[in-house]
Structure formats: C-alpha cells, structure tokens
C-alpha cells in the first residue's frame, strides 16, 4: 500500500473543533490524508465529553483523517500513529543545548506526559463506522486529533485550577518559545511513515514496539477503570497488538480500553 502524504492541510483561525470538522468531511467522502489545523478551538473536545483548553495562537491543535483498511480490532492503533508522530516531532525540536531533547513519554494510550507525569498533549480518536455506507469503496474513517501544549502554559500563566500542576508545555520543558510551524512540519513528516505502518502486520507490531519504547505506564502501578468496575496492578508491558498488559493478583490481564490512572506511592 503506498504511503499517504498528508499534504492537504486546511488551516483555520477559529473553529469549534478540528475533530468535528474532519468527521463531517469524512461523512461527505473526504479521502485519507486530510489534516485540519486550528489557531483556536471554541469547543475543543477531549474524551468522554471533556473539554480541551488552549488560548488562541499558542498551541498546536490538529486532526488527521485516516481510513485504515484493517481489522476493527486494530483500529485503536490509529491513536498510537498520531502519538508516536508527535513524539518523533517533539524529539527533533532544537534546544539551546544541542545535545538534549525535550523528554516526553506516552501515558498509555492517549496522553503525552513529561517525566513528572504532567500532560503535554492529549489524543482523541473518533470513528464513524456508520458513515462508511455513504462513501462506498472507502474504508471507514477514523479522525485522530491531538492538542499539544506548545507555548501555553508559559512560566507565569494562571492556569484554570484543574490544570495547575497537571498541564505542562513544550515551552516550559524547552526553556523558551517553540516554533509551532516547525513542530507541525516535523509532525507531518513523521506521520506518513507511522500511518503506513497501520497497513501491514509487521508495521502494526512496529507501532506496538514504538509504543512500548515510549511508554511511561509500563513499570508503574496503575488503576484501570472499566465500565464494569476497576482493578489495580502493575503495568508490565504492551502486547504485540498494542494493548496494555497489567498484572494483578498473579494474573496478566490485557487492557483493551478503559481509563488508566497512574497510582503514585502513597496516593
Ligand atoms: C484528551 O482528552 O486528552 C484529548 C484531547 C484532544 C484535543 C484535540 S485538539 C484538536 C482536536 N480537536 C478536538 O476537538 N480535540 C482534539 P482527555 O484524556 O479526556 O483529557 C481531557 C482533560 O485534560 C480535561 O478534562 C482537562 O482536565 C485536561 N486538559 C484540558 N486541556 C488541557 C491542556 N491544554 N493541557 C493539559 N490538560 C488539559
């Protein structure tokens, strides 16, 4: 399968949500590869009805439209594609001290965090399997959005109370302003190869390995909140399919979906 080039980049000064926009475009038959980037979102969304905060002009807010022609059980790796492309792009930011990189890790499955666990970015994948019927011949869409805290918060920003001590920006980690356009270009450059990996079994294993290498969750104590209850254990690995393996009571359980909370000692 040829690599998709993410060249159809649509830019918005202000929009409700880049995810909403691309889901509508997908329903109208837009192909894989469209990217929507906004300076500001008036209704930026997180998972489970939560909101994504970012003041105008400070951060990178974008969504990509994928149409992976794969088993539905593997579609969750679309989140990994975008998370890893962001890690790649952040890793190539030039810092004043050339030998260092901004350290970010993936908190399985959809957050980018710094070494203290503060959130640098969040990924939101939304599918619309029903819309595939309106776009005959095209695999069903999955829209993956990411909000990266680039220049907000700054050192002196008054964050909303719920984000204090919880959110961090690349600017804070890099020790100075970060160029959003360069970061976007780095992200798009990495995205092509990462998205191509979705199409093959070898590529999907590579995505799972990339996730394992970048994952801050493995090795920590976690609580897994599922629809039918929660359990605690130690995250011991990432399965070849990209799922989190959590050992609890001597049993290794594979976590496919659910909210994973890192449990710190003493909390
Ligand atoms: C996410 O949800 O982390 C997914 C965020 C995806 C945002 C992008 S922006 C482009 C695209 N278009 C959209 O409309 N959305 C996507 P979740 O795991 O549910 O986290 C949301 C929670 O993170 C909120 O309830 C806040 O507590 C917190 N939060 C909100 N804004 C934040 C920020 N800028 N930095 C860190 N945490 C934030």
Q: What's this entry about, in short?
A:
The chain is of the alpha+beta class and 267 residues long. It contains 5 helices and 12 strands.
Can you give a write-up of this model?
- This protein has 267 residues and is of the alpha+beta class.
- The protein folds into two domains: 207 residues, BirA Bifunctional Protein, domain 2; 42 residues, SH3 type barrels (Roll), CATH 2.30.30.100.
- The strands form two sheets. A seven-stranded mixed beta sheet has the order 1-2-3-7-6-5-4, sandwiched between helices.
- A hairpin with a 2-residue loop joins β8 and β9.
- α2 crosses α4.
- The protein is globular, with a radius of gyration of 18 Å.
- It starts with 7 loop residues before the first strand and ends in a 5-residue tail after the last strand.
Lay out the secondary structure.
Elements: E1 8-12, H1 18-27, E2 34-38, E3 60-66, H2 77-91, E4 105-107, E5 111-113, E6 119-127, E7 142-148, H3 170-174, H4 180-196, H5 201-214, E8 221-226, E9 229-238, E10 244-248, E11 251-255, E12 259-262
Parallel strand pairs: 1-2
Antiparallel strand pairs: 2-3, 3-7, 4-5, 5-6, 6-7, 8-9, 8-12, 9-10, 10-11
Helix pairs in contact: 2-4, 2-5
The structure holds biotinyl-5-AMP.
Tag the structure with descriptive keywords.
267 residues, alpha+beta, BirA Bifunctional Protein, domain 2, SH3 type barrels, 2 domains, seven-stranded mixed beta sheet, five-stranded antiparallel beta sheet, 12 strands, 23% helix, globular, binds biotinyl-5-AMP
